[in-house]
Amino acid sequence: MKNVLYLVALFMVGTLIWSIYKFNFNNVLPVVTSNADVKNISYKIDGETFNLQNGVAIKEIAPGSATKQTVRMFGEPVYGDLNGDEKDDAAVMLSSDTGGSGTFYYAVLAIATGTTYISTNSLLLGDRIAPQTVEIHNGRALYNYVERKSGEPMTTRPSMGKSLWINYDSKTNNIGEWVKDFEGEADPNRMSLSMKKWDWVKTIMNDGKVTTPNKSGIFSITFTNDGKVKVSTDCNGIGGEYSINGNKITFSRMISTMMYCNGSQEQTFSKDLNNVQSYLFTSRGELVLEMKMDSGTIIFR
Questions:
Q1: Which CATH number fits the domain 188-300, given the four candidates 2.40.128.270, 2.120.10.30, 2.60.120.10, 2.40.110.10?
Q2: What CA–CA distances, in Å, run from 202 to 29, 132, 222, 230, 269?
Q3: 127, 289, 299: which is closest to 211 by C-alpha?
Q4: For 156-201, what is each residue's pLDDT tens digit?
Q5: pTM for this one?
Q6: What is the DSSP letter of 7?
Q7: Residue 155 CB neighbours (<10 A)
Q8: Which of 70, 98, 162, 100 is nearest to 125 (CA)?
Q9: Which of 74, 84, 89 is nearest to 35 (CA)?
Q10: Distance separating alpha carbons of residues 301 and 287, to the nearest angstrom
């Protein structure tokens, strides 16, 4: 009888301890928000609400219309604290098209509540721009892209780098452009290919895939004033010639040493470099080599 009472008491104590633990776990410890939620919440574009599912939403322009508007998340969200509450919010780029010639890009934030995300208003970046990167620095989101110069027709390939800082107002849950003090910023009009050795920072494909060097400062490209180009990789050295016509650039007579290096990124880097057709400079002091067919960009600094 004593043994039975002992077991019953032990069970009751265990149940009580578990109940206390469960209460504390659910009510005291923070709830972790899944990053996947960012791809499955509602976003507003020009007053219209789009419920994304796995990063995509498709809506009829009008009831019964064959024309549909497709809104999708461009690339991957970038996470960081944007409102000072020590939770990881997300900076997102959305694209919108209706099957016509235009594709519009928007900046929008997804703010973490602790259990899910809520989206802000969206800001239009431009039509048929060339998106580059989305970053978070010191509680603000930074959108980098390439647009056309003022007055250029929409058929002109974007050639002017732009960086847009986004500020979040927690009182209104709205975002707006933040004008940063750019004193000391680079002037693209005064930059040249031969001004320095350019170190590879990243390659961004237009499907959102981003490749970065495994080791910084290893991959570089150097241009000389007499039309020679030298490329350093994590395995071989490559040399050749280049010519420019406006912002178009052509590489020729490229010769490489023939070492084999296990795990090297050289093959992918060289393949992208051979696909380059134009270049531009940004106000962030970067050289951007643009690939053919708007397939991607290689960024150097």
A1: 2.40.128.270
A2: 38, 10, 17, 18, 10
A3: 299
A4: 888 888 888 898 988 899 998 886 554 446 678 778 899 888 999 9
A5: 0.56
A6: H
A7: 8
A8: 162
A9: 89
A10: 6
